[in-house]
From TrEMBL:
Limits of the PKD domain: 37-103
Signal peptide: 1-21
Record flagged with keyword Membrane: no
Taxonomy of the source species: Bacteria, Pseudomonadati, Bacteroidota, Flavobacteriia, Flavobacteriales
Stored PROSITE patterns: PKD
Domain of life: Bacteria
Cited SMART domains: PKD
InterPro entries: Ig-like_fold (IPR013783), PKD/Chitinase_dom (IPR022409), PKD_dom (IPR000601), PKD_dom_sf (IPR035986), Secre_tail (IPR026444), SprB_repeat (IPR025667)
Pfam families: CarboxypepD_reg, PKD_4, Por_Secre_tail, SprB
Keywords (A to Z) from UniProt: Signal
Protein name per the record: T9SS type A sorting domain-containing protein
Length: 557
């Protein structure tokens, strides 16, 4: 009884196992040439051995091998799996893709340009393609405006297959032109030349210079000083533009000499070198000035060929003299009477020696005065509008007849000039405006009745003359007729100025140099001006408005 029960229990606990052969299966992913493809065994029934055939002549016994295909195509991969109960196999087609590309190159046409291009022709793989270029980062199939050099590119299809390529852009050697200038032999000459030596490019060359003759030879001749440009073009139409300059030495003329006063060289003064190309203001040009500090000598080197006049000034603090032009004799105050000094050539070291004796001005003790203003009457040459004052012009006063120089001064910025201490007599006034002739319309007669005169000088741009605008008038007559009173004269503390009622006047008080010491409006009829701060001496009072213009010499004690 016990034996039967035990047997029944053992049978109920026993599981019956039926052994089976494996069933082959695997997974993979298609890829590209050169990719490492992974094969995964998915076989069932516990195979113990694996035999792979990749279809390209290679095999593996690994359960999950990897493989690289070196050629595109479809490969039948076979997997055979086995165990002690049997074996099984499976075949699957694996697709290997390849992207290919060819390119067409257009080289740079002219050396140094960037007009090269590359056109790609991709094939294989699966569209669309993606492009990438280095250097430059371009992403198009075709690229343009390339400089010479090597460019790498990749073509990638939708499967991620990549083609790598290189394209090299070449260029012809650039045109290089060496220019050798030959400077002119002397100042102002036209015997300069430039020689050109081209290399590179594709001969023959065509030449084009930009000189006035538009020369078309390799070397340009008969050139004056200046900058020149040469364009050299080769047989392909490639061009190079190069520049060179022709220089010149300084002119080698010299004008030198000595300035004297009362027979002795001056130790302080100046000399002006004025080029004279004609007889109008535009034809006279101040070229240079020289400051004399000792010995009276001056020297103008490097003077260009041409005609010149020389004007000398003595220091008026040391020498009582007038500005003097050289005339080969005692000197003159008029530019049109000055002697012309000729430098005939820029290449012959021409020189001229000039000696000038300054015209002396006598010490005066008379009681007369001549005051005035120089204004523009036409406008133009001096860039002045009609009525504008002209400053910094040398003015001289001469006795008439006889021509003795009695005074010299310079117009101030307002065009005014002043002469005092003139003795009784007849006088003419000259304004030294280069290129203008002095048109004297009358004389000024200083006498016991009328000793102080006011004149106006006008320049005329059409006739290039300067002269009196109208007849000179006595300051005494002007003051009497104007109703203006200026007193006392001499003054010490207070200067009284009485003007007509209901009129506004301007007042200026200037010293003998033309410097304005006081400038104010007179808004009332009776005006008192404090002059205690003025240094004792001679001054000039001007009271004026639109209808009156009164000058009077004033003595401050």
């Amino acid at each position: 009884m016990k034996k039967i029960t035990l047997l029944t229990l053992l049978l109920s606990l026993t599981t019956i196992i039926f052994a089976q052969a494996p069933i082959a299966n695997f997974t993979w992913a298609d890829g590209c040439i050169g990719d490492l493809l992974s094969f995964t065994d998915n076989s069932t029934n516990s195979p113990t051995t694996w035999a792979w055939d990749f279809g390209d002549g290679t095999t593996s016994n690994l359960q999950n091998p990897s493989h690289v295909y070196t050629a595109a195509g479809s490969y039948f991969v076979t997997l055979v799996v086995s165990n002690t109960f049997g074996s099984d196999s499976i075949n699957n087609a694996v697709n290997i893709y390849e992207v290919l590309a060819s390119h067409e190159i257009t080289d740079v046409y002219c050396g140094g340009l960037c007009d090269g291009s590359v056109n790609l022709s991709p094939s294989g793989g699966n569209l669309p393609y993606v492009y990438n270029w280095t250097p430059g980062g371009m992403t198009t199939q075709n690229v343009i405006n390339l400089c010479a050099g090597t460019y790498s590119y990749t073509v990638t299809d939708m499967n991620g297959c990549i083609y790598n390529g290189n394209a090299t852009i070449s260029e012809p050697s650039p045109i290089v032109v060496s220019l050798t200038p030959n400077n002119v032999s002397c100042f102002g000459a036209n015997d300069g030349s430039i020689n050109s030596t081209p290399t590179g490019g594709t001969p023959p060359y065509i030449y084009q210079w930009d000189d006035p003759l538009l020369q078309t030879t390799a070397n340009a001749n008969s050139l004056t000083p200046g900058s020149y440009s040469l364009t050299t073009t080769d047989a392909n139409g490639c061009a190079s533009t190069d520049n060179a300059s022709i220089s010149e030495p300084l002119p080698n003329g010299t004008i030198a000499g000595e300035i004297n006063y009362q027979g002795s060289p001056i130790n302080s003064g100046s000399v002006e070198l004025i080029r004279k190309d004609g007889s109008t203001p535009a034809d006279l040009t101040l070229i240079d000035s020289y400051t004399i500090t000792t010995g009276g000598t001056f020297n103008f080197p490097n003077v260009e060929a041409g005609l010149y006049i020389i004007k000398a000034y003595g220091d008026t603090n040391l020498y009582n003299s007038a500005p003097t032009y050289s005339d080969g004799g005692l000197g003159t105050i008029q530019w049109n009477l000055a002697m012309e000094w000729d430098i005939t050539s820029n290449c012959s070291n021409d020189s001229q020696s000039v000696y000038i004796s300054l015209i002396e001005i006598p010490t005066l003790s008379g009681s007369g005065s001549i005051n005035g203003q120089l204004v523009e009457s036409g406008g133009g040459v001096f860039n002045k509008a009609p009525g504008d004052p002209i400053g910094d012009i040398d003015i001289t006063v001469e006795q008439s007849p006889g021509g003795a120089i009695m005074g010299a001064t310079t117009t101030d910025t307002a065009g005014y000039f002043y002469f005092d201490n003139l003795p009784e007599g007849a006088y003419v006034v000259y304004a030294d405006m280069h290129g203008y002739s002095m048109n004297i319309s009358g004389t000024i007669d200083i006498n016991s009745t009328n000793s102080d005169f006011d004149i106006n000088l006008c320049s005329d741009d059409t006739t290039f003359t300067v002269g009196m605008c109208d007849n000179p008038t006595s300051i005494e007559e002007n003051i009497t007729n104007s109703g203006i009173e200026i007193y006392p004269n001499p003054a010490k503390e207070i200067l009284n100025i009485t003007t007509p009622q209901k009129e506004i006047f301007n007042l200026t008080i200037s010293d003998v140099t033309g410097k304005i010491i006081l400038n104010q409006k007179l808004n009332t009829q009776n005006n008192q001006i404090e002059v205690t701060t003025f240094v004792s001496g001679i001054y000039f009072v001007r009271v004026f408005n639109e209808t009156h213009n009164i000058f009077q010499k004033l003595i401050i004690e």
